[in-house]
Amino acid sequence: MKKKIAIALSALLLMSAGLIAVNTASEEKTVEPPKAVMAEVDTEDEAGEDAKEEIVFTKSFSKIKAGKTKTLKVNVTGASWTSSDTNVATVTDLGKVKALRVGKTTISAVLGDQSASLLVKVKPKKVIGIDPGHQIRANTGTEPVGPGSSTMKTKVTGGTRGSYSGKAEYVLNLEVAKKLKAELKDRGYKVVLTRSKHEVDISNKERAQKLNKSCDIAIRLHADGAGSSSASGASALYPGTDNPYIANLSAASKKLSEDILDEYCKKTGISKRGLSVRNDLTGTNWSTIPVTLIEMGFMTNRSDDLYMAKASNQKKMAEGMADGIDKYFGSK
What is the Cα Rg of the chain in Å? Predict the structure, then answer.
């Protein structure tokens, strides 16, 4: 706000009479006091414009589950939003965050030279256990077929081999397992593998126990073999209602088996042999979570074997199984 202040300027000393007398040899002059001069003084804050408002979050969160959407809000309008890792989560211009896969990302709101940032952790939809069946060398030692059982079975066998591709089953199982892991991670799941290499010695009981610790379901990957090359197609094995160890998991395991097998065969075109009840599988009987064993196809059948050996087809196999897992959890 501006105020006018009258400032009296004088070139000489002001006499008490208000006049200055000057005597010279020739005459006497009276000099009027000078007129007051008005000057404007600006009393406005000289610090410049008011400081810009700091951006702060008025609605925030630090964790979100993959597949879910939540909205962040700040105290200003017109801010632009960014995510430091769009593979983990994306954010719209309105601050709506969509969680995609497990990980961490920094969400930022920016307006001019002001910004606010928040670290967001994306949690998994579910934890999926995958057991790539077999290993490079069999372990012919024995272990109980189920908890408390006196029936003993071989700890882990060597598996079959492709009659036409020459590929060992343990190799095929791990190749598909790794592709399934990648596909599931992209869909927001966390994945636990019982093995990530061939040179291991892990029994079927130990594989089940590993997945029991942190997983919601267990997928056992195998491939079939037969004396006749005409046998073909995929099947899924699950524990029956009369299973002496995990009868309580039969219904959930059957649904898991059905959902995965249906979507797998739909995606790959491999023929569907159907579901089979099996109560004699160690890796199944030691599970404490819903479990299925997927026989992906016959390695003794020319068409199945050569199809499964091809990397691009393995990707389809993984996508089909992932579709089935989505279906089982109700997200498909």
Answer: 40
Instruction: Work out the angle between the directed axes of helices 169-186 and 311-328 (0-180°, nearest 10).
Output: 50
pLDDT score at 74: 97
Two structure tokens written together for 195: 């093995």
Q: How far is CA 52 from the centre of its chain?
A: 36
Among 232, 238, 224, CA closest to 277: 238
pLDDT tens across 241-279, in order?
999 999 999 999 999 999 999 999 999 999 999 999 999
The CA–CA distances, whole Å, from 253 to 130, 190, 301, 308 equal: 14, 20, 28, 25
d(CA 328, CA 326): 5
| Global confidence as pTM | 0.83
Report which of 210, 215, 223 is spatially closest to residue 165, judged by C-alpha positions. 223
Enumerate domains of the chain plus CATH numbers: 2-42 (no CATH), 57-123 (2.60.40.1080), 127-328 (3.40.630.40)
Look-up: residue for tokens 């211009």?
93
**278: buried, middle or exposed (CB in 10 Å: 19+, 13-18, 0-12)?**
middle
pLDDT tens, position by position, 141-198: 999 999 999 999 999 999 999 999 999 999 999 999 999 999 999 999 999 999 999 9
Q: Which tokens is 55 given?
A: 């951006």
Q: Is 92 exposed, middle or buried (0-12, 13-18, 19+ CB in 10 A)?
A: exposed
Residue 176 near residue 318, CB atoms below 8 Å: yes
Please, what's the b/e burial string for 279-288 (b: 16 or more CB within 10 A of its CB; e: otherwise)?
A: bebbbbbbbb
| pLDDT tens string 202-226 | 999 999 999 999 999 999 999 999 9
What is the helix (H) or strand (E) element at residue 261, kind and residue range?
helix 250-268
Closest CA relative to residue 240, chosen from 281, 185, 203, 207 = 281
